[in-house]
Design brief:
By secondary structure, the protein is of the alpha+beta class. The chain contains five helices and three strands. A three-stranded antiparallel beta sheet has the order 2-1-3, with helices on both faces. The protein is globular and about 40 Å long. It comes from Nonlabens agnitus. This is GIY-YIG domain-containing protein.
Amino acid sequence: MFNSFHIYILECADGKLYTGITSNLERWLLEHQTGYRETAYTFHRRPVKLVFQESIGDLFQALHYEKHIKKWSANKKWALINGDFDRLKILAQCQNDSSSAFVSSEYVPKKLRGK
């Protein structure tokens, strides 16, 4: 049984970002790098570079966090990667009357919130 799950973001050779989740980051990163799965998004975008990772102990929280980040624009992901939470808040501002004005702090990794 694994103690934590890793949300990770890879930067691909073509500049695209890939967000994923795993219980074994080293093995999964090696698989992305070596092209273990020909059908994987990263297969034709190698080499890839790990630019962000956060460990979360609860599987359901980790899956929720990964799903949330996957919906973000590349600009929002780069703000997260760079720890630029002022920019992240600006990018998360309402685009219409029914949206939330700011990203909830529950989606910001604890170590990056300064707690």
